[in-house]
Write a structure and sequence with these properties.
Layout: H1 5-10, E1 20-22, E2 28-31, E3 36-41, E4 44-45, E5 53-54
Length: 56
């Protein structure tokens, strides 16, 4: 089961409040503004700032 489009529409980055997008490989949600990547575990997004990794 993948993350639904409806859920992606309402999720925002907890750090900067910008939109997040699903990475192409489905491993995480990437913020379009601050570039933090929040992991997806067992089809559940972990939207904790401490769990995020900043990607360039």
């Amino acid at each position: 089961m993948a993350i639904s489009a409806d859920l992606l529409e309402i999720l925002i980055c907890p750090a900067c409040r910008a939109k997040v997008e699903l990475k192409p490989d489905g491993s995480g949600l990437r913020c379009v503004s601050c570039h933090r990547v929040y992991p997806v575990r067992d089809d559940i997004p972990v939207m904790l700032i401490d769990e995020a990794v900043v990607e360039n």
